[in-house]
Structure formats: structure tokens, C-alpha cells
Design brief:
The chain contains 15 helices and 6 strands. With 363 residues, it is mostly helical. It folds into 3 domains: 52 residues; 74 residues, DNA polymerase, domain 1, CATH 1.10.150; 191 residues, hpI Integrase, Chain A (Orthogonal Bundle), CATH 1.10.443. The chain has a 3-stranded antiparallel β-sheet with strand order 1-2-3. The longest helix has 18 residues.
Length: 363
């Protein structure tokens, strides 16, 4: 079934696997037969377990794509975890390079911002893919990792967010008012900077168009699309925030965005600096977490009410957008953030040395 031979200055094993003739390198030294024999024993064990000996040398992304093609249950959830978290970190590494240290480094970085339940799902997905290649693989012991359903972060308070807003670029930056608008839009709608900066006004009378409806404040936007599903963002801005957007001159030309000169990275970095300057622990992603937590505390349900506004579930944009009940629900959720108006907060919260937020948007 298997035999060793020297070829090309290396000791190789020839064997049949799944009806095909295969060859694998056992040792780079043509005289090291002891090492070659040990590798042959390991090769035999892999074949007996039904594993592909070549797969361990491929990249994580290659194996993840193969694995995803065979997923039948919870395809959307697995695809999202791979695309957003696992592939950006492990994608270019070969399967043999993913060791305990690399896995622990990944989870230490993710544990700073993600909830415990999400970390647990990431660990399960990573284990499934690794065992797809090597059935004997097991994750490292990480006693410090909290994978309970409780959040690893405390939601930011309104006072903390207001304090951070003072340090978002304003008059000193020609685009300062745009940064501030993105900051409060991120806080009160949960949309990422990439979603905000790609907003376009929805043409009047076109019920199939996407974008920002300046009459109702409803944003309908395609967040992600694959061959199997589409995920849409459907959220309504609070009244005071919509008034800010109405003051902005509408883009010239069909399909043009409001702020084509800005990039999502500019917004993210500016807000991270604002958190640091305000002495508040967190970053831009905490604004999205605050949006979610605020709605939960107001009595809205995570799966049925909040998830559709954050682009977490698939759906039909036409029926969901114009259903009367859906509009009432979006309006009720937007009302929760009426108290986030910085002008109102300036009158009700103790601000220390901070002044009232004023610029070309707020007046």
C-alpha cells in the first residue's frame, strides 16, 4: 500500500488515496531513514483516520472554503464568522502553522471587544475546521477565556458617549462636522462607518431604491450578499439626527454618496483617538454595542427586533420595508435615542470643562 523511495534528493512515500496515486515527502535528507519511518507511521495513521495528508499543507482559507461548501446547517452564521473574524487572522497561514500560541493570540485579541458567547461560537467554528483536516486536533486550554453568555463588556453610558463626542474633530478639521455626524449616526443607528459613508439619498417615488429616506429617516441598505442569501440593514434615525442629515446638500448625480472624500478608516481612527483623549475605555465598536444594549434595556427583543436593524439576518427588503407594523417598530426604536441629542445632553448632564457641542451641523 505504501513504499518509501528516494526521489529528487528526498525520501518520499508513494500510496493510493481515494483512488488516486499520491506521493508525500517524508524527509528532506535522503539518508535520514529513521525520521522517514516515523513520518510514514504518522502518514499511515492519517490515512486510517480518513484524513487527506496534503490538506495540512494548504492554507486555512483554502480549507475554510472547502468546509463552507459542505455546510448545510447555519450557513450564514459560519460564513459570517469566517469572513469577519477567522479568515482575516488565519487565512494565509498553512494548517500546520496554526498552533496553540497562534490560537491563543487570536482569542486574546478578540476577547477585548467580543461577547463571551461570540467567543465560544468562534472557538467551535475554528475547531470544526481544524478537525476537518486533522481529526486529532484539539483547542488549547485557555482558562482565562470567558465564553459564558454574559457580555465581557459593560455598555457605555450616555454620559461617557457625550464626553467622547467633545473630542471628535470639529472646527480644527475642515471635515470635523462630518466626523461628528458619523459619530452620532454610528451611536444611534448601529451602522458601521463603511455603511454610513456609502449612504445615498433614496429617490422620491422609487419604492425599490435603497438609501436614506429623508422624509421618514429610514435607512434601507444591502450590507452583504452571497449566492445563498442577502443581509439588509433597516433602521430609522431619531428625529434630531435626521434634521442634521437634511441640512447636508444632496449629492450631485445618481448613486453619489454624501461624503465621497472620507474613508471608513478615517472615521474609526478619529473616534479611537477621541476615546483615548476623553479617558474612556473603548473604541468605535463600543458605539454599536451601546446601540444594541440601549434597545435591549428598552425592552426590544434581540433576535426579532434588534438583529434586523444591524444587518444580522436575511430578509426581503420590499416586504419588510413597507410593512406598516415594521415602520411602527422602527419608529419606536428610533424614539429611544431621542435623549441622545447632544444639545439636550449639554443641558442635562454634568460636562466638567467641556463646552456645548456646536458646529456647522448642530448650529
Amino acid at each position: 500500500m505504501k513504499r518509501m523511495r528516494v526521489s529528487g534528493g528526498k525520501i518520499r512515500a508513494a500510496f493510493y488515496h481515494k483512488g488516486k496515486y499520491r506521493s508525500d515527502v517524508l524527509s528532506d535528507d535522503p539518508k535520514d531513514w529513521d525520521r522517514a519511518y516515523l513520518e510514514l507511521v504518522e502518514l499511515r495513521a492519517k490515512l486510517n483516520r480518513g484524513e487527506d495528508p496534503k490538506a495540512i499543507k494548504s492554507t486555512f482559507k483554502e480549507q475554510a472554503d472547502i468546509f463552507l461548501g459542505q455546510v448545510k446547517k447555519d450557513y450564514e452564521g459560519v460564513e459570517s464568522k469566517l469572513r469577519v473574524h477567522l479568515v482575516p487572522h488565519f487565512g494565509k497561514l498553512s494548517m500546520s502553522e496554526i498552533n496553540e500560541a497562534e490560537v491563543e493570540l487570536f482569542f486574546r485579541r478578540k476577547a477585548v471587544k467580543l461577547r463571551g458567547s461570540t467567543l465560544d461560537k468562534l472557538l467551535v467554528t475554528l475547531t470544526r475546521i481544524m478537525r476537518f483536516v486533522d481529526k486529532s486536533w484539539s483547542p488549547p486550554e485557555m482558562e482565562w477565556l470567558d465564553t459564558s453568555s454574559a457580555s465581557t463588556l459593560e455598555a457605555l453610558t450616555v454620559e461617557e458617549i457625550f464626553r467622547v463626542s467633545h473630542f471628535v474633530p470639529m472646527q480644527s478639521d475642515p471635515h470635523g462636522w462630518k466626523y461628528e455626524l458619523c459619530f452620532w449616526t454610528w451611536t444611534c443607528t448601529g451602522m458601521y462607518p463603511s455603511d454610513i459613508l456609502s449612504l445615498t439619498p433614496r429617490p422620491d417615488g422609487d419604492k425599490r431604491a435603497t438609501g436614506l429616506d429623508l422624509k421618514t429617516g429610514v435607512v434601507t441598505k444591502l450590507r452583504s450578499k452571497t449566492k445563498k442569501y442577502q443581509k439588509w440593514i433597516r433602521v430609522m434615525m431619531p428625529g434630531w439626527l435626521l434634521e442634521w442629515w437634511r441640512k447636508i446638500p444632496e449629492p450631485m448625480g445618481k448613486g453619489q454618496t454624501y461624503f465621497p472624500e472620507l474613508k471608513p478608516g478615517n472615521i474609526t481612527k478619529a473616534i479611537c483617538r477621541a476615546f483615548e483623549a476623553a479617558g474612556v475605555s473603548g473604541s468605535g465598536i463600543d458605539l454599536r454595542h451601546h446601540y444594541e444594549s440601549t434597545l435591549e434595556h428598552a425592552g426590544f427583543r434581540q433576535t426579532e427586533d434588534i438583529a434586523p436593524t444591524m444587518g444580522h439576518v436575511k430578509g426581503n427588503k420590499i416586504t419588510a420595508r413597507y410593512a406598516h407594523a415594521m415602520m411602527e417598530k422602527l419608529s419606536a426604536m428610533a424614539t429611544v435615542f431621542d435623549g441622545h441629542n447632544p444639545i439636550v445632553l449639554a443641558e442635562t448632564l454634568e460636562r466638567g470643562k467641556g463646552g456645548v457641542l456646536k458646529n456647522s451641523v448642530t448650529g
